[in-house]
Amino acid sequence: MKENYSISSENILNRIHSLMECHKNKRIIIAIDGRCGAGKTTLAQYLEEQTGATVFHMDDFFLRPEQRTPERFNTPGENVDHERFLFEVLEPLRKGVVELPYQRFDCKSQSLQDVVVIRPGNLCIVEGSYSCHPSLVNIYDYRIFMTVSTEEQMERIIRRNGAEAAKMFESRWIPFEERYFSVCTVEGQCDCTIDTSKM
To answer: What domain of life is recorded for the organism (predicted)?
Structure first.
């Protein structure tokens, strides 16, 4: 049954502990998708602090310049390199690798950085918009959708990114997200919804 929490951190933490208790010999992979400004990164950081989870950020898989074609941007959910994320991170995690090499995309240089090698634990969290893309969503053990009111979303983005950058979010990135959420029925694919409005 789909769960809905108005205040979430402890509830989610309890759910994660239950999952790990039920699957002691399995790596648990959790996705946190949802609207920008809803608190995805904050929740991931909290869970990392409480559980020692290995966290992956979808921002590290932003499209490379040569991938940003009109055709791709016209397709809901395609403004992230989900193919590379699946190949470099998600499939190896599910196979139980001990060491995981992958490359992060750097927005400042608009290029892939040097390969980093991490040792993922038994609990891994994938944080960021598009983490529940149709090609990825069924691989996770638990999926969280985070939402926030439109007004509070913009207030948070302005505080975080500044008024000028917020205009780009409002005119470009948020419409991309909303189309993805709608067409790919993202919230409906998730196991719980967290509304952080007025929190």
So the answer is: Bacteria
